[in-house]
């Protein structure tokens, strides 16, 4: 089974949008909230090379943020990543 991890903050509209897409696609995911958690945000930045949320990982590979997730989905590439 594919592992999806998403680093988020509570009020981020892009986080909400990314989670909504994952839920629409019936994908389970692990959410890691970095609100007030500098160590978790630091880990996210080390793993992704980015400081913004959301940061989404599929099987440990960073795919970027919400716009990247939507682009993969719209381009038909997300399904291929999930079926590995």
TrEMBL record:
<dbReference type="GO" id="GO:0015038">
    <property type="term" value="F:glutathione disulfide oxidoreductase activity"/>
</dbReference>
<keyword id="KW-1015">Disulfide bond</keyword>
<keyword id="KW-0249">Electron transport</keyword>
<keyword id="KW-0813">Transport</keyword>
<dbReference type="GO" id="GO:0045454">
    <property type="term" value="P:cell redox homeostasis"/>
</dbReference>
<dbReference type="InterPro" id="IPR011900">
    <property type="entry name" value="GRX_bact"/>
</dbReference>
<keyword id="KW-0676">Redox-active center</keyword>
<dbReference type="InterPro" id="IPR014025">
    <property type="entry name" value="Glutaredoxin_subgr"/>
</dbReference>
<dbReference type="Pfam" id="PF00462">
    <property type="entry name" value="Glutaredoxin"/>
</dbReference>
<dbReference type="InterPro" id="IPR011767">
    <property type="entry name" value="GLR_AS"/>
</dbReference>
<dbReference type="InterPro" id="IPR036249">
    <property type="entry name" value="Thioredoxin-like_sf"/>
</dbReference>
<dbReference type="GO" id="GO:0034599">
    <property type="term" value="P:cellular response to oxidative stress"/>
</dbReference>
<dbReference type="InterPro" id="IPR002109">
    <property type="entry name" value="Glutaredoxin"/>
</dbReference>
<protein>
    <recommendedName>
        <fullName>Glutaredoxin</fullName>
    </recommendedName>
</protein>
<feature type="domain" description="Glutaredoxin">
    <location>
        <begin position="4"/>
        <end position="63"/>
    </location>
</feature>
<keyword id="KW-0963">Cytoplasm</keyword>
<dbReference type="GO" id="GO:0005737">
    <property type="term" value="C:cytoplasm"/>
</dbReference>
<comment type="function">
    <text>Has a glutathione-disulfide oxidoreductase activity in the presence of NADPH and glutathione reductase. Reduces low molecular weight disulfides and proteins.</text>
</comment>
<comment type="similarity">
    <text>Belongs to the glutaredoxin family.</text>
</comment>
């Amino acid at each position: 089974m594919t592992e999806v991890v998403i680093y988020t903050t509570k009020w981020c509209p892009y986080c909400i949008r990314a989670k909504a897409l994952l839920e629409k696609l019936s994908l389970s995911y692990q959410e890691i909230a970095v609100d007030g958690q500098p160590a978790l945000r630091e880990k996210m930045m080390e793993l992704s090379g980015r400081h913004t949320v959301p940061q989404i990982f599929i099987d440990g590979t960073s795919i970027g943020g919400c716009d990247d997730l939507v682009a993969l989905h719209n381009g038909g590439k997300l399904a291929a990543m999930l079926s590995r």
